[in-house]
Model the fold of this input.
Amino acid sequence: MNSNPLRVSKTQKEVSLWVHPEGRVSGAIYLRGESAEYAKERASEAFNQTSPFIVLSCMGPDNTRFYSKRGIVRIEYEDADERPVTEGVAEFGCSLTMMDGSTITGTIIEVLKPESARLYDYLNITEHRFIKIHLQNNEICLINKAYIVRVTPVSV
Done:
């Protein structure tokens, strides 16, 4: 049991951030023990919260940093548990062209309402700053919509 009732229990999740203009930064974010939708908070939920900053714990002397979500281009991490297993799952293969000219190809796997279960609808969910792309080997990439130039559907 938590001895301090004002302290929120959290776990660390290893991530790599691609931050503009700093580049790649590795560390851990803090996830709550529970969320509105899942038994434990997922990284995608933490990054899509309305708070403008996220805490990153890094190795070294400046081990705690606060990053503005607006400046984060993408986040990469591994998680086998983030694949939805319920009914109503939509899958979209897509290729994203980023502002820096790079291309990220993967699959969006999300539970969507039947009336808005298109790739276009998912991209236009306004309350989400980041979209989630499943890559290979349980790798996940959260991509800041502000840095996407073009999305092209591809076969899955």
Notes: The mean pLDDT is 90.
